[in-house]
Amino acid sequence: MTKIASRSSRQGLAEAALVVAILGLALAQATAEEAAPAQPVADRGAASGKASLTLNISPTPLLVDSLPIVALAMSSQSDRLASCGDGSGGPGGFGQGMVRLWDVKQLKEVVSYPTERGVCAVAISPDGRLVAWSSWARDVVLQTVEGAELMRENVGHPAPLAFSPDGKSLVAATEGQKLLVWNVATGKRAEGFQEDTIPYHWVGFSPDGKLLVAAGERQGRPYQAAVWDAVTRQQLYRLQGHQTPLFRGAISPDSQTLATSGGVGICLWDLTDGRQRQRFNPQVGDVNANAAVPVSQCLAFSPDGLLGASAGLSAGSVLLWDPKTGQPAGQFTTLTTPLRAMTFTRDGKTLVTGSMDGSIRVWNVERKQQIGLLQEPRGETDLSLAVAYAPDGASVAAGLADGRIRVFRLAPAASVYSWQAHGDATAAVAYSADGRLLASGGYENDVKLWNPATGELVRTLKGHQGWSVALAFSPDGRTLASGGYDRTIILWNVEEGTQRLKLSGHTAPIRSLAFAHEGSLLASGGADGTVRLWDAASGEPRATLSDHKGVVRAVAFSADDRLLASGGEDRVVRLWNVETHDLGNRLAKHTDVVTALTFIEGTLVSASLDHSLTVWDVATGKPLTNSDTGSQVIAMAPAPDGKQILTSQPVQKLTLWGKQLITSQSARTLTMWEANQVESESLAVFGRFAAFAWSAAFSSDGASLLVAAGGSGNSTDLYRYQVTTGKEQFRIAFPGNARTIDVSPVGDLLALGCATDRLLLIEASTGRQVAPLETEGGHVNHAAFSADGKWLFTAALDNQVRIYNVGLRGLVSTLRGHNDWALSVAVSPDQKRIVSTCRDGTAIVWDLESRLPRYTLPCGRAGLESVAWSPDGKTIVTGGNFGAVNLWHAQTGAALRSLVGSRGLVYDVNFSPDGKYLVTAGEDHLTRVWNLSSDAAPRILGGHTGPVTCARFSPDGKRLVTTSTDGTARLWDVTPPAE
Q1: Range of the domain at 786
Q2: In principle, which of 590, 831, 848, 963 could form an S-S bond with 950, CB 3.0–4.6 Å?
Q3: Mind spelling out the 3-state secondary structure of 834-890?
């Protein structure tokens, strides 16, 4: 089967292609390279089968920091505040999000929860013990503030949320026209609210708990809000008279008045009878009385009901007004970016605001002045200067430029907490061998030891006369080495907190330290350009290694302690023989300062300010791969098992390169990447095509390959190649932008499905159009033939699955059951059932005789992009968002197993003809071939430079074709090894 993601996914890919095209044109003009041939060609070469360590270029962020604040929620006692940040850029975005919990009285963060997609709503229970949020991934999550997840449910759409005043219920208003209710104590669904609903943007309970109000929009309907009895859950009345969608609401403390905003101005409604009391524009100061006020993005009543507050899309002020008259009551200037959320404290003396610049500010209402800052606006304060991996692999720590330490819990539940460690920047962090201590140093003389589980200070180590910027624990955890600007290294007795030895010799500040794995040697790198080896027991110098031409920023021992790597400001990585002290290879690849080094699985990984992570073959000194991280890499730390790396970069991004690497970068994210043995040499490369290569298929005899590539404008170029020679047999342009092709197992008919309401039958041997098939307006996202070639099934973006009679060239049935875009379809080998997937995360198995749903797979996550049926008919596989690949029992729908390793969207899944192997293709630019009879890691094919949109086996199962948005199709030899 062959398909690409939903329309929003494709739009993003198309935009990316435009950027690539512009950059490619600029590069061509700058370098005056030889022009590419006008026709796509096949570059053929014998596959060497050589595998190399390669970093996956499609990361999965674990943490996004200082995102635009889109919602705030206060506990009833005003002691806890929940905030949510949205990194998605809107409903079609793929950015990450963050939910944070704050101690309002102490103005400090309590805990944070990273999310896979941007967060659009947050709520906190009245007692402050539970937090709930809704994300653009369409999940509603309920959990304790300690991190125990009580409920996670995909509701089909992003949803505003509200806890009932008694804290017993949680309500979500979904775009799918439902008001969903959960029992907070059990996490189970409860009876919902009755009557017709509309897509709502805001939902809230009256303070007395008697009413539920929801406001939103509905085309062609006279009302935009409705009121329910919160006890009986029957709809009481609808609010009519507002001509524009309602985006925000607030209910007065006495439960008598509702304020709503939408379009221009604010409306006040009497909740006793639903009448509109008045409408006004809350203008203050020099604003023209006739000027239109933009949509208010946030509304709030003061607890005494005497003030209303609002702020719009324009930046600058919170406007205060009298709820009785609508007259202005003051304003205060906030900042230069729009506000998206606000809430009063219980006493009404304080207002908390959240802004698009990521800041959360605390204001004195009477003085109209800022009195506190919970979260700073996006800037350099969260820059991670140092990173460290906990020995158990469950946490990572980062030292920040503002002097804080931030610990990210990766397992069992993702969360974040931080504390102030130093008065200035925290420039070094290191975990003890048992993980019970975390050492920190920075732009002050003292070294500090912390309990990383609580942030409690255990001990302060005084002895340096300058900044302490380099730290390393001995393998047994009993000794801590610290180096600083006073040109000395101090070896500390960790248990007693005393100096054991002070080592002198460097003539400039110490910038890096590392213990050998067996613990007898200590290596140091200094600003004097030397690398020095020390006896860790006696402190005696063993060797001075001099070849660098500047500051040595990084040193690292190989796993067997035979090699020492060093790198720094001269941009060259050097390998030293630890026993003989001889210089081996000079590894010259970086174009900027080398900031960090680590050995991983027999290779060396170097990080640099030139935005790269380079993997080196230690034996030859040659680079194996070079990955662009997107920004300067400041620090890097290996995981305890040597299979992961953590990096830090100036976009304030912490990234896990997973097998695993962690980096810190400037987008303020903690991200997981894949680092695996990847094969990059294919049998042949077909292209470059005029645009994206969306889909490909082998002819029924396996001798030819057909590729569909988006042409210029609204057209598709269909290519046919001879597999053995790569010779192009034809190229034909068809109207419509094809997203899927499938070849009939008999008769060599080709189905070409387009995103422009076209479904074509084509003679695969000649490219001649046989017949168009009516699609009834459905954009065809995927098409699949039955085994006998008599039937053709399609999944379309109008939510429908269609069945066509190939011989009669006509539509025979339409299956309606999905509530969102139908994305893919697969046919059982016995042709009695089909399975179709939907953007809302559901998969329906249909009975073809009755043409009714048989059961639904409980996939539980949004966006199932791909599906396939095993040749023996016993298994269904689905691929979707977040790297999800799941196998299901085809008869019962029971979950069988999950295949873990993919990142991002899984665009395509397919079984080999014998059913022994499964191929997956995805957003992470990689194709994986899984042996289903073992738990071994998949074989990874990594030649594409863009998302892989299609992957399918040849009829004999010995070859594989893949297509990508990089404009190429690749042919691979996947002959299994002899058993």
Answers
A1: 688-973
A2: 963
A3: EEEEECCCCEEEEECCCCEEEEEECCCCCCEEEEEECCCCCEEEEEEHHHCEEEEEC
Measured distance CA(900)–CA(936) in Å, rounded: 11
Q: What is the CA radius of gyration of the chain?
A: 31
Q: Give the span between the Cα atoms of 735 and 724, in whole angstroms.
A: 30
Q: What is the CATH number of the domain that holds 618?
A: 2.130.10.10
Sign, CA dihedral 18-885-683-589, equals positive
Helix and strand numbers (H, E) in the chain are 1, 88
Higher pLDDT, 589 or 60: 589
Buried b / exposed e over 208-244, threshold 16 CB at 10 Å, is: eeebbbbbbbeeeeebbbbbbebeebebbebbeebee
Token duo for residue 790: 């008599």
Task: Report DSSP letters for 289-334, one per residue.
Answer: TTSPPPPEEEEEE-TTSS-EEEEESSSSEEEEE-TTT--EEEEEE-
- Asked whether residue 844 is domain-assigned, the answer is yes
Contact 464, 447 (CB under 8 A): yes
Mean residue pLDDT of the chain comes to 81
Residue entry with tokens 């992570």? 613
Residue 425, domain member (yes or no): no
Q: State how far the Cα of 558 lies from the Cα of 540, in Å rounded to an integer.
A: 22
Rounded to 10 degrees, the C-alpha dihedral 354/356/359/364 comes to -40
Does one domain contain both 617 and 696? no
CB environment 252-276: b (16+ within 10 A), e (fewer):
bbebbbbbbbbbebbbbbebeebee
Rounded distance between C-alpha atoms, residue 384 and residue 453, angstroms: 19
Q: 542: cis peptide before it, omega within 30°?
A: no
- Range of lowest pLDDT (264-273, 409-418, 689-698, 864-873): 409-418
Q: Domain boundary at 628, 651, 668, which?
A: 628
Question: Do 598 and 694 reside in the same domain of the chain?
Answer: no
In Å, what is the CA distance from 364 to each residue of 282, 421, 594?
Answer: 20, 29, 48
Confidence of residue 145 (pLDDT cuts 50, 70, 90): confident
Residue 601 and residue 739 in one domain:
no
- Tell me how far apart the alpha carbons of residues 171 and 190 are, in angstroms, rounded to a whole number: 10
Residue 660, H or E segment? none
Q: How far apart are CA 971 and CA 42, in angstroms?
A: 10
Is 275 part of any domain?
A: no
Show Cβ contacts of residue 21 under 8 Å, excluding neighbours closer than 6 positions.
none
Kindly report the CA angle at 469 between 467 and 472, in degrees rounded to 5?
135
Q: What is the 8-class DSSP label of residue 244? A: S
622 part of a folded domain: yes
Cβ atoms 266, 279 nearer than 8 A: yes
One domain, residues 575 and 716: no
Q: Which of 588, 607, 628 is the last residue of a domain?
A: 628
pTM, rounded to two decimals: 0.53
Instruction: Give the pLDDT band of residue 286 (cuts 50, 70, 90).
Output: very low
- Tokens at residue 675, please? 């680092």
Q: Which residues contact 225 (CB under 8 A, 6 or more apart)?
A: 213, 214, 215, 216, 238, 239, 242, 246, 249, 258, 260, 269
pLDDT at 465: 93
Same domain, 843 and 966: yes
811 with 907, same domain: the answer is yes
Tens digits of per-residue pLDDT, 847-874? 999 999 999 987 655 568 899 999 999 9
- Is 6's pLDDT higher than 60? no
pLDDT of residue 902: 80
**Tokens standing for residue 253:** 């403390």
Same structural domain, 556 and 692: no
**Mean pLDDT (whole number) for 948-958:** 94
- Burial bucket for residue 935 (CB in 10 Å: 0-12, 13-18, 19+): exposed
* One domain, residues 696 and 550: no
Total residues belonging to the chain: 979
- Residue reference for tokens 């329309």: 7
